Structure formats: structure tokens, C-alpha cells
Amino acid sequence: MSARVIDGKAVAAKLREEYRSRIIQMQQGLGVTPGLAVILVGENPASQVYVRNKIKDCNEVGIRSEFIKLPETISQAELLAHIDKLNADAATHGILIQLPLPKHVEIRKVLERISVDKDVDGFHLYNVGGLVTGHQVFPPCTPFGVQKLLEHENIELDGRNVVVVGASNIVGKPVAMMLMQKDATVSICHHKTRDLAQYTMLADILVVAAGVPGLIIPQMVRTGAVVIDVGINRLPDGRIVGDVDFEGVRKKASFISPVPGGVGPMTRAMLLHNTLLSAERSSRPA
Ligand code: NAP
Q1: pLDDT computed for residue 220 by the predictor
Q2: 9, 131, 263, 281 — which has fewest CB within 10 A?
Q3: Whether residue 98 lies in the annotated active site
Q4: Of the residues 7, 54, 245, 252, which is catalytic?
């Protein structure tokens, strides 16, 4: 068996086209342009690349982006004041704080300050709680990207065994909740899980988000399983790889997402989706 390789880059490009048309319609019909504010605190080189890409994506689909670059030394109160200003600005439909933040800033306080209606990253506690009950305002971008990839490939979730490796607040836990809302039976594994393979072998759909290159080898995958690799790891030789032994596992799986070119582009596209959704909601007559 050789797995079908899920082309996240192509799926994301198709979605961007769709968002672009919806944005043009919105501008022509309502005179509204969706707006995203991106706040970057400090000089983290990886964060700078992520922010640059997000702004490039916005430009491509016609979202107005506002880049707010703040010094590493900014006080928490000043940062909160920036968020308050954006919360009150009708032309800003989404607010994104690029993580990580400097150590002297309490991340939760900052994320909780963003208006729930503009929390396009989906990290506000209200949004996180909504994931549990199925009433989220904005689906968090990476988990939503995983769900969209599965939908695009017509992979059924109803009643199937999903195993998520990784239990972080931004990927593992929300992706598990979202797929459970789609009626999958979900197990979540983390670094203290005993005998990881015993779980992964049960998976019809295996979602891996541990940040450990080569963690999932073919012996840990059931023949015909769907494997979604969320991991992004830079090797000492500069190569970017996921958490799955791609070449080995693709011979056993039915579908596999590559790294790069799998979940990463979808995460970026989902931010555009959420910003557009926010603008559409705020333009609806009350
Ligand atoms: P994280 O906060 O470090 O969480 C990693 C999770 O994996 C933790 O729950 C950890 O367990 C678990 N884990 C670590 N080693 C393990 C092992 N050997 N066996 C089983 N579980 C293990 O990382 P994250 O932010 O969720 O990101 C995970 C990966 O996804 C990273 O490579 C990151 O770069 C990537 N990522 C990709 C995208 C994208 O768009 N493609 C977006 C976000 C993140 P404990 O909880 O017990 O410590």
C-alpha cells in the first residue's frame, strides 16, 4: 500500500481563492473590508517569519492587515491598552497576538483581554470552553485546519477511532475536542502515556502533534490508517520534518499529510477564514 499524500498547500490555495471571492462580494455589497491586527512583541526571529507570512496571506485575499510591533520591554498594562484600542475599533475584525510573549507578561491575562468576537486565534477561555460544548465562536486555527483537511479528503469521522498524540492547549486538546464533536471516539496521548504504540495501533485516524521528529514509525500504525502530522521540527541539518517517519509510514497508511505542505498551510488559511467570518458576522443586520 502507498498512501495518498494530502496536499495541504493545494487545499489551502483553493480555500484562499474562495475567501478572496467572498471578500470581494462583501466589499461590493456592504462596503466592508475585513481587518486583522497582528501584534508582535519583541524580536523572536521565528515569530517575525510567522507574522510576515500572515500579513502576506491577508494581502493575497484582500484582508486589511495592521501590523503592530511592540518592544520586548513593553509593560503588561501598555500591551493591554493596545488590545483595548483594537477591541473598540470597528474596522478591526480580528486580533492576533503572536506567541510566545516575554516572560514578564501573563499570557492568559493578555489572551483574555481580546474581545471574544475578535479572537480569531480561538485561544480565549470562552472559545476554549465553547469547544467542549460545541458552541465555539472561532475554531482554533491548527485544529480546524486538521478537520478541514479530513473533510476535503472525505474521511469519515463518525464512530471512528481517532488517536491524538500530544495534549497541548493549542493543538492536541482542541483537535481532540473538535473531532469528538464530529462523533469520533477519541483517545489523547502525552509524554507520560505508557506504551504509546498500543494506542496508536488502534487509530483509524492518527493525529500527531508532539514536536518529536521520528516519533511515529511504521510499526506503530495500523495498515490503512489515516495519518495527519502536525509536528514541525527543524533538524540540525536545517531540514524541516514532522513527527512521523513519512517514508516508512506512507507505505502502510491510506492517507498521510506531509511536512512541510500539510497542516501548516491550512493553519494559515484558517486564520483568514476566521477573520472573514468575524467581518461577516459584524456586518449582519442586528
Ligand atoms: P507542545 O506544547 O510542546 O506540546 C507537545 C505535546 O506532545 C505535549 O502534550 C507533550 O506531552 C506531548 N509529547 C511530547 N513528547 C511526547 C512523546 N514522546 N510521546 C507522546 N507525547 C509526547 O507543542 P504544540 O504547541 O502542541 O506543538 C506540537 C507540534 O506541532 C510542534 O512540532 C509544533 O511546532 C507543531 N505545530 C504545528 C502547527 C502547524 O500549523 N502545523 C501549529 C502549531 C504547532 P506532555 O503534555 O505530557 O508534556
Answers
A1: 98
A2: 281
A3: yes
A4: 54
List Cβ neighbours of 192 (8 Å cut-off, separation of 6 or more).
none
The letter for the amino acid at 121 is D
Ligand 1 site residues (CB inside 6 A) read 142, 165-168, 170-172, 189-193, 196, 209-212, 215, 230-233, 263-264, 267
Percent helix, strand and coil across the chain, each rounded to 5?
45, 15, 40
Q: Determine the Cα–Cα distance for residues 44 and 182; give it in Å rounded to an integer.
A: 37
Q: How far is CA 5 from CA 47, 96, 163, in A?
A: 28, 31, 19
Distance (Å, rounded) from C-alpha 232 to C-alpha 156? 26
Separation of CA 213 and ligand 1 centre (Å): 11
Which run of H or E residues covers position 205? strand 205-208
Q: Which residues contact 197 (CB under 8 A, 6 or more apart)?
A: 219, 220
Per-residue pLDDT reduced to its tens digit, 72-97: 999 999 999 999 999 999 999 999 99
Cβ–Cβ < 8 Å for 261, 7: yes
Whether 243 sits among the annotated catalytic residues: the reply is no
Q: What is the number of residues in the chain?
A: 286
Tell me if residue 54 is catalytic: yes
Cβ–Cβ < 8 Å for 276, 19: yes
Closest CA to 252 of 212, 213, 200: 200
Q: How confident is the model at residue 285 (pLDDT cuts 50, 70, 90)?
A: confident
